[in-house]
Amino acid sequence: MWYFTWILGLGFALTFSILNAMWNEVSMGEAGENDLEIDR
User: Distance between CA atoms of 14 and 23, rounded to whole angstroms?
Assistant: First the structure.
């Protein structure tokens, strides 16, 4: 059953990395918009 643990662990790691990348895009987008407003 060790293979089940590997598959489950890799699935969680992949899900976490995708969600982290999506969150990073959203937070950087908000920071970019705020920077444009401050520069004006």
Answer: 14
Tell how far CA 24 is from the center of its chain: 5
The two three-digit tokens of residue 11, written as one number: 């699935």
Question: How confident is the model over 1-40, as pLDDT tens digits?
Answer: 889 999 999 999 999 999 999 999 988 876 655 555 555 4
3-state SS, one letter per residue, for the chain: CHHHHHHHHHHHHHHHHHHHHHHHHHHHHHHHHHHHHHHC
